[in-house]
Sequence to fold (489 residues):
Amino acid sequence: MNVLLASSEVHPFSKTGGLADMVSALGKALARAGHEARVVTPLYRGIRERFPQMRRVDWHFDLPLGDRHVQGALWSLEMEKGLTVYFIEQPGFFDRASLYHEHNISYADNAGRFIFLSKCTAHLARYLPWRPDVVHVHDWQTALVPALLLQQQRAEEWGNPPPTCLTIHNLAYQGIFPPGAFALTNLPLEFFTLEGAEFYGHLNCLKAGIEFADGLTTVSPRYAREITTEEFGHGLDGLLRRRQKQLLGILNGVDYDEWNPAHDPFLARPYSVTRLAGKAVCKLALQQEVGLPEGRGVPLFGTISRLADQKGVDIQLAALEEMLNTQMQFVLLGSGSSAYERGYTALARRFPSQVAARVKYDEGLAHRIEAACDFYIMPSRFEPSGLNQMYSLRYGAIPIVRATGGLDDSVIDFTEDTTRANGIKFYEYSARALAKAIRKALVLYQQPGLLRQFQRRAMKTLFHWEQTVQEYLKAYELARDFRTRSLLS
Ligand code: ADP
Fold:
């Protein structure tokens, strides 16, 4: 099968969150299962310098964007057999310091930037000599592609465009812009209705994707159910209920080429489930790196996160405040809302021998924290899939998670199954409930035999992409069936 993927971020070229990891791993898994995957993504600043082996393709984009035309060039890089990445070069849009915003302020032309990316994707889907069997887009930044393809079929006599599939990685980010931005799509006004891209008078890119994609997926089964409810639906639950038959929840897999403590170039010492000694070395090395007193015996907790409301920062700060009177250490790596950044740095200043906060984005440090920690805290309000709890399972850092979305689907609590328990769950969204879960972790830490058992089970809990990719192939089939049926009706 030929699969054209499109995403605004792809690891290792660009990343702000799990989207980048997932698209990169899905592309690889498709290729390794014998399919051919090509990924369309922007050529952001610095990528060409870091990947000098990429080649310029003899291709030129000259696409309408409202009442002007925007030009672009195309670069490609073959990652491995069956996996090629296409980079859209448009310096005005993508040669910037950041992907989406600077100093917490979104770029004013984000609508134009990502409508252009969507148009380039639709253009490649139609005109590349390589014909995709399915076009799989991700999140709001490329969610207009299905509408663009539909329009090409309706008005521009493209007999049979490939079926489309949209994956929702996070319903909270919908790409909502003032109504004037709709003109940038150059779609006819019939697309800007209640059953189209219009949302309370604004352009909503994700909504357009949910309306027009043939297949829909989201990144865990529980989140697929949650987003059809008012509580988690961010205003789109009615539409999602209407399209529920096309909506599949597929839990993300993990790229174990990247996340494996036995072969991780970022770690002080490798380790595995049968040779755990290296984990203690990693703990001491991290304590030294972040300036915490070195000690094997003190339980070390960690979190790596975008600092956004979604991630439960408020209850985490309050719970830590309460728990830091016990013997424990906590290390944070994250960036985002400046109030939350200040919250963690203030905590680190007040408890310098117990808390270290690193406000930045640092891939190597993220790996070292997973390896060093005894426990990993992820108290999200909602969590579509979550990857860090899966990484921490693999690294033997017992996850403490709130039972929501993918966190609930990937972690097993003692109360659910005593023989398979690999983490600690709490249910109520409150600092009190999180503090109680941390207290449970401290009790577990005092019982080395039981702790080891949890750790072993955690490290053996695997989320292989070989299985996950089969579910995506099913989703593509479902999208194809839906397309065929809608063509016939
Ligand atoms: P989300 O996509 O909502 O941010 P996920 O848990 O699905 O959350 O994925 C987050 C990804 O981003 C993980 O790979 C995580 O390690 C990484 N990450 C988040 N913040 C940082 C940071 N400050 N430094 C390095 N990696 C980070």
Notes: The chain has a mean pLDDT of 97. The pocket of adenosine-5'-diphosphate is lined by residues 17-18, 21, 304-306, 333-335, 361-363, 366, 385-388 (CB under 6 Å). Residues 261-463 form a domain with the Rossmann fold fold (CATH 3.40.50.2000). The longest strand covers residues 68-80.
